[in-house]
Each structure stands twice: as C-alpha cells, then as structure tokens.
C-alpha cells in the first residue's frame, strides 16, 4: 500500500497549480475548480500547531505563504471559476492564522 504525507501532497499540488495558473492564456474553468477543491481538501489546518520549534514555525509560515501566492493567482483568474472568496473562507476557517502570515486580505 502507499503512504503519503498531506503536506507533501499539498505543496506538490500548489506548485503544479501555480505553474498552470501562471501560463499564458486562461486556464480551463473545470480544471481550476478541481484544483481549488483539492487544495481546500488537503489543507486541514496549520502544520503541527502545538509545536513551537523553529523548524515547525518556519514550515507553517512557508505553507501559509505558498497558499497565499496560490490564492492570489486564483483570484486573478478571469470569471473566478475557482470561487476564490469561498476558498479564502475555507482556508481561514481551517487555519485562522492563515490570514495573519503575510497573506493579504481581499474585500
């Protein structure tokens, strides 16, 4: 059987999605919706929230910032096929610190 680590899957998906969102031309709306749903499903909250070790804090911050970059790219997709506002709310609900780690708030 296969064993996976959610944070590795999340970072891999975010990198791939950021690359796709950064390509010229509009991305396929169905693909954007699927990627947004997958990211929300994978991010269930901050990494090891009870651990204050420097490496854990750095990893949490890195993941939150990567999520923030991805969310900014998602918000920039014409027509908002990924429902960026709903994604932002879901990420903030899973991790109230998400919006506090250098992630800009949108109206």
Describe this protein with a few key phrases.
4 helices, mainly alpha, single chain, 59% helix, 0% strand, 107 residues
Terminal CA distance: 44 Å
The computed structural class is: mainly alpha
Q: List the uncertain runs.
A: none
Radius of gyration: 14 Å
Write up what this structure looks like.
- With 107 residues, this protein is an all-alpha fold.
- Helices cover 59% and strands 0% of the residues.
- The chain has helices at 6-21, 29-42, 54-75, 84-94.
- The chain is elongated, with a radius of gyration of 14 Å.
- The N and C termini lie far apart (44 Å).
- The relative contact order is 0.17.
Write the layout of secondary structure elements.
Elements: H1 6-21, H2 29-42, H3 54-75, H4 84-94
Helix pairs in contact: 1-2, 1-3
Summarize this entry quickly.
This protein is mostly helical and 107 residues long. Helix content is 59%, strand content 0%. It starts with 5 loop residues before the first helix and ends in a 13-residue tail after the last helix.
């Amino acid at each position: 059987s296969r064993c996976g680590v959610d944070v590795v899957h999340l970072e891999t998906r975010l990198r791939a999605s950021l690359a796709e969102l950064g390509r010229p031309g509009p991305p396929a709306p169905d693909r954007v919706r699927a990627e947004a749903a997958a990211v929300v499903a994978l991010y269930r909250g901050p990494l090891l929230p009870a651990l204050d070790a420097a490496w854990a804090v750095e990893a949490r911050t890195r993941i939150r910032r990567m999520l923030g970059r991805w969310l900014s790219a998602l918000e920039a997709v014409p027509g908002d096929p990924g429902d960026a506002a709903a994604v932002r709310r879901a990420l903030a609900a899973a991790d109230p610190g998400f919006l506090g780690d250098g992630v800009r708030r949108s109206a």
